Amino acid sequence: MFFIYALTLPLVGALIGWGTNLIAVKLLFRPYRPYKVPFLPLVIQGLLPKRRQDLARSIGETVESELLTFDDLVKQVHTEEMTKRLSQAIGDAVHEAMMVRTPGIIPGSIKKALADTLADMVEDRVPGIIDWLADEVAQAAREEIKIGRMIEDRMNSFPLETLEKVIFRVASKEIKHITVLGGVLGFLIGLVQVLFLYLARVADTPVI
């Protein structure tokens, strides 16, 4: 009988530990909607579905205030290199327009000189205009665009089924480790129980 206990207790403990950890991981998402347990004043719902709006709001506020502010986005777009490329593009467009639209009676050399001069003037003035426009647009957009709110709305509208698949796919190794660790701990607890049973059995054995 003791041999049966020594064999089954660790195995049952491992199975229980593995199963409970697996269920705990699943309960992060399942059930998606509140489920009323029959005959009991108990309603069950997955942690993430239940706290979805709170989590989305908290993540949105954290991202907007700590990780990705509107000013950060403006800095990524409004750079010296970007301003230089825009100025060059506008200058080239002005030069091409002058060459095409200038009356044909004007000699080509004069037409090219005028186009070059006007393009250079535009390229010199454009950076200041771009800086002014960027500041004006950024100020107006800052009042209208709320990054945190956008993230919150997107997370609230994201299908829970898809979110669950993504998380389980990305964290598959960690989830597996959690369930395996539950099995190992359950097995160790079973061994401890076997040890206590053995000590109790030895203590009850009469000394001849």
Overview of this structure, please?
The structure is a single chain. The protein is mainly alpha-helical. The chain has one domain. 80% of the residues lie in helices and 2% in strands. It has nine helices and two strands. It has helices at 2-26, 47-50, 52-67, 70-77, 80-101, 108-144, 147-157, 160-170, 172-204; strands at residues 35-36, 43-44. Strands 1-2 form a two-stranded antiparallel sheet. Strand 1 and strand 2 form a beta hairpin. The longest helix is centred in the middle third of the chain and has 37 residues, at 108-144. The two termini are 22 Å apart. The model has no long low-confidence stretch (mean pLDDT 82). Belongs to the UPF0754 family. InterPro entries: DUF445. It is found in: Endomembrane system. The chain crosses the membrane at residues 6-29, 178-200. It comes from Desulforudis audaxviator (strain MP104C).
Neighbour order of strands in the largest sheet: 1-2
- The low-confidence parts are none
Give the biggest sheet: 2 strands, antiparallel
User: Helix content range of the residues, please?
Assistant: over 70%
Q: What percent of residues are in strands? A: under 5%
Instruction: Return Rg in Å.
Output: 35 Å
Got a strand count?
2
